[in-house]
Amino acid sequence: MNEAVRVLVVDDEALVRHALRAFISDDDRVALVGEATDGSEVVATCRASNPDVVLMDIKMREVGGVEATRLVLDWNPRCRVVALTTFTTEWRAIEVLRAGACGYLVKNSTPQQIIDAIVAAHAGDRVVSPEVQERFVRAAIESGDSRITDAPVLSERERQVIDLIARGLSNAEIADELHYAEGTVKADIRHINQLWDVENRLQIVLRATELGLISL
Length: 216
Known about the structure:
alpha/beta; globular; 13% strand
């Protein structure tokens, strides 16, 4: 059995920390190893707990999540940071993603979505809440920066995978939906990335929208 992903929670709201503590304790794929109430505490807490993934609030009193993300990655570039916030505007997401975060979730995400995102982040995936992902895509389209070219041929299963990615499903959920092994889904996503010369789920959705394969 794989070791549980070690998680540090950084949030200035006690109620949020309590809820996340409960979510994490109910799933043996993850383990809570520390908590911090502000970005100013994050490096010391990381050193004490050695997390694999940091769940990071954005708006905190002294040091906010964007700067705290930079501090975490300065401490350990291999650590993964997933922002968990109330903000759904794409510019907020861009700030923290540019600082090095690999994920952006909103706080109305379900416990399952949060845990799946932690596990996915630890595995090297980039995770963005569907509503924020949609804002990214719409903003890119409205900016006029999209460049549509002929699309390489995709298999029917790859098209199904893209559609389910756009709906916000995790790799495990896609595997359940299509009745394939999760490893098969990951292989399909890698193939799509190679065909389209993209790097992550958000770019897959944007590219699929440009090509008219999905609509939002």
